[in-house]
Design goal:
- The complex is a heterodimer of chains A (about 400) and B (about 130).
- By secondary structure, chain A is an alpha/beta fold.
- Chain A is built from 13 helices and 13 strands.
- In chain A, strands 2-8-7-6-5-3-4 form a seven-stranded mixed β-sheet, sandwiched between helices. A four-stranded antiparallel β-sheet of chain A has the order 9-10-13-12, with helices on one face. In chain A, strands 1-11 form a two-stranded parallel ribbon.
- In chain A, α8 links the parallel β6 and β7.
- In chain A, α1 runs antiparallel to α9.
- Chain B has one domain: Sufe protein. Chain: A.
- Chain B starts with 5 loop residues before the first helix and ends with a helix.
- The chains are: A alpha/beta (about 400), B alpha+beta (about 130).
- The interface between A and B is medium-sized, with 26 and 26 residues.
């Protein structure tokens, strides 16, 4: 059976050049970057070169501003808890949005239990926060604003520069979870106004288990792990050199070819959207029509439940995901679509197609061969289906 | 997505008895308080109190669709009194099992059946 992977926002396959770059660091250049001998110095050299590549992708002022972590979730935890710990004497108020990834939301909830106060900003129907509301929410006690760069479910891009300038105006630290955005659309960390930026390798064809937190020089933050002097004293623990080298390579490829690759991804994504819209009735786009990642298409098929759709697609070899309650484990529908004001019945029918640089036109053709009959079949079973 | 048995997948892809019955003897429509899924069941009962026809429709996941399908198979040919004794566990068993998080889908089927039978008795009393 043909296999078509359209769940890139969950994870992607590693680029062959990335894998090739990583392999020698398992069995040939396996030194500990903290060791002073030749093995160690060699590992250190590659560690620092990788740091430069990551810094270059986001336009960081200096490579020391990059701290390698185990990925997006750790970076989010580090940014939020590290800031809260460092600035707790200045205030106890944190501002975030309702549509954040759980790595941010649940870290904020944890801090609420520790005496911090958290404001969760709502979003408009496209999933975008109101910067005026953000400004009004800031008090003398506010120590951190944490708002994502692009949403993992819908791909909607937040007005980072506006948020950054509000934060700067009020002198509040701004963290952004940019895991879904970096490498897909141009991102300049200085223009964003963020002092803290979470990054991940595996969303952009890098290895799993590695990411980074950008920490602008001069930003007050507590270390996330205590131990040796690794990562500028901010994250103790022997560096995972193979993964970090893979991440560096990922960023190098993204810097060189990202725009061109994702222009192609966007063409495929838009083609898929056009063909779904013209071939299937009663479909609605979730997320902003333009201010959106080039890779993400989230649509609701009215009167259907998403799990039934993705199960049917899965049986045809097509991998996608849904915001439906029936797949969440908690049986709660997507908090993102709910915050955008989408009625539950439509949130239940949301399906996310997310593409990466390896998808092809043939993949889209295959989806369009399989999807319309599936929607047809399931609507015949649905007691709430009404034709327009 | 949960691991489903082959039986669940079979009923999901090719459900039995999908649709509505015109002028049914009883109808039950239940919305799951757990997840918002909807299951609608129609039954036709003959003069001997035997369920001669049953049809269903589901707005819901694979397990909820399969539960509706197997339910119609289980009750067809049974008397209303026999059908009344069916529980969600019978639905789960007939499907060769359901993942724990999907057990509530079989409860949806049981509840729709009970409601349809209630509706049937209610209508009979009025006659």
């Amino acid at each position: 059976m043909r296999k078509v992977y359209l769940d890139a926002n969950a994870t992607t396959r590693a680029h062959p050049e990335v894998i090739e770059a990583m392999l020698p660091f398992y069995d040939k250049m396996y030194g500990n970057a903290s060791s002073v001998h030749a093995f160690g110095r060699e590992a250190r050299k590659h560690l620092e070169e990788s740091r430069e590549k990551v810094a270059a992708l986001i336009g960081a002022g200096s490579p020391e501003e990059i701290v390698f972590t185990s990925g997006g979730t750790e970076s989010d935890n580090f940014a939020i808890k590290g800031t809260a710990a460092a600035l707790k004497d200045k205030g106890n108020h944190i501002i975030t949005s309702e549509v954040e990834h759980h790595a941010v939301l649940n870290t904020c909830k944890y801090l609420e239990g520790k005496g911090f106060r958290v404001t969760y900003l709502g979003v408009d129907r496209y999933g975008i926060v109101d910067t005026d509301e953000l400004r009004r929410s800031i008090t003398d006690e506010t120590i951190l604003i944490t708002i994502m760069a692009a949403n993992n479910e819908t791909g909607t891009i937040m007005p980072l520069e506006e948020i950054g300038s509000v934060a700067a105006e009020k002198g509040v630290v701004f963290h952004t979870d940019a895991v879904q955005l970096i490498g897909k659309v141009p991102f300049d960390v200085k223009r964003s106004g963020a002092q803290l930026v979470s990054m991940s390798a595996h969303k952009i064809n890098g290895p799993k288990g590695v990411g980074a937190l950008y920490i602008r020089n001069g930003t007050e933050i507590d270390p996330c792990q205590h131990g040796g002097h690794h990562e500028n004293g901010k994250r103790a623990g022997t560096e995972d050199i193979p993964a970090i080298v893979g991440f560096g390579k990922t960023c190098e490829i993204a810097l060189k070819h990202g725009l061109e690759h994702y222009a192609g991804v966007k063409r495929l994504r838009d083609m898929l959207h056009d063909r779904i819209s013209s071939g299937i009735k009663q479909v609605r786009l979730n997320g902003h029509p333009e201010k959106r990642l080039p890779s993400t298409l989230n649509v609701s098929f009215d009167y259907l439940e998403g799990e039934a759709i993705i199960l049917s697609l899965d049986l045809e070899g097509i991998a996608v995901s849904t915001g439906s309650a029936c797949t969440s484990g908690s049986l709660e529908p997507s908090h993102v679509l709910k915050s955008m004001g989408l009625e539950q019945v439509f949130a239940q029918g949301a399906v996310r197609f997310s593409l990466d640089i390896f998808n092809t036109r043939d993949d889209m053709d295959y989806v369009m061969e399989k999807l319309p009959p599936i929607i047809d079949r399931l609507r015949k079973i649905s007691p709430i289906y009404r034709e327009d | 997505m949960e691991e489903y048995t082959d039986k669940v997948i079979k009923h999901f892809l090719n459900p039995s008895n999908v649709g509505q019955i015109e002028d049914p003897s009883g109808k039950g429509k239940i919305t799951s308080p757990v997840c918002g899924d909807i299951l609608e069941l129609y039954i036709k009962v003959d003069d001997n109190g035997v369920i001669s026809d049953a049809k269903f429709r589901t707005f819901g996941c694979g397990a909820a669709i399969a539960s509706g399908s197997i339910l119609t198979e289980l009750i067809k040919g049974k008397t209303v009194e026999e059908a009344r004794k069916l529980s969600n566990e019978d639905v789960v068993r007939a499907l060769g099992g359901l993942p724990p998080v999907k057990i509530h889908c079989s409860v949806l089927a049981e509840d729709a059946l009970k409601k349809a039978i209630e509706d049937y008795y209610g209508k009979r009393q009025k006659k």
